[in-house]
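Q: Focus on the shape:
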Amino acid sequence: MPADERGAGRSAMQMEVRKLTVGYGAAWVLDQVSLQIGAGEFVGIVGCTGCGKTTLLKAMAGLLEVQSGEILLDGENIFSRRFDRAVLRRKVGMVFQYPEYQLFAQTVEKDVGFGLKYSRLSREEKQERVRWALEQMGFSYEEIKDQSPLSLSGGEKRRVAIAGVLATKPELLMLDEIQCGMGRTGKLFAWQDYGVQPDVMTCAKALGCGVPVGAFVLNKKTAEHSLVPGDHGTTYGGNPLACAAVNAVFECYEKQHVVEHVAETAPYLEKKLDELVEKYDCLAARRGKGFMQGLVVTGRPVGEVINRAIENGLLVISAGSDVLRMVPPLVITKDDIDEMIEKLEKALQ
């Protein structure tokens, strides 16, 4: 959802980070970070695991204490004692990397609507807002509203968590898109399939395909209003190896049409996994999107299936206590999928 639609009827919002420093114990995670995000701008924050992306987003959402620096929302420092935190909650929404930790209410409807609890909307308006947010995430409101959010799959939990943020119609939407980015769901970024458009986004890992790399991405307008030479200096910044790796990754994606390949091949993988669910009583459901798939295992330990799969030459992992997780290479073919299914069947027998 474009920023101008989310903030319809309200003044344009701007956020500025000034020389922000955050540390855990003796280790500095963020050191003198500065940036500016204008109304309607799209900003990506990219970096390797542990470089501080999520810490920065949490600070911008006012969810942790900082050692020094300022974060200005429409010119007001959010860390000031005089600042009204209710304003921050209305204007800035954040979806965590593991959004299932955000869910707590008895039903999906109550969870998605929690952010509207103290708003001035009428009961009918709140219900309509919750309906709209769930439908934006591809749910049927009537089918899911009374379900427990804790009984949903990992992917469904994440979509419900995003719906809870969208329901408040924040003026700044930040998405932490680490594992599902760079084509794994059939789009370059997963949010492109859900009718939303984040203002800030994080991604990592696949950007360098094995080469540790961190990058801070700004569009032209934001860069012109936030960074000057020296603001983002670092000893290893822009080193030739990391830059060459990123260039090679994007060249490979373009030449081999990687994202398009995932979109074309994923339905075949989903079909084959659905057939396994129909065939084996120990499989309750298939969940996932693109090349991020999971099979819900019942009546036997997931670890047992994983070990038997490894014995047959198939590497799979678990997600939680009852899901067999599969995140295959983005270049697999239908023949590869057939071989995978054959080995997985041996593990299930």
About this structure: Residues 1-10 have pLDDT under 50 and may be disordered. The longest strand covers residues 27-37. Residues 262 and 330 are 6 Å apart (CA to CA).
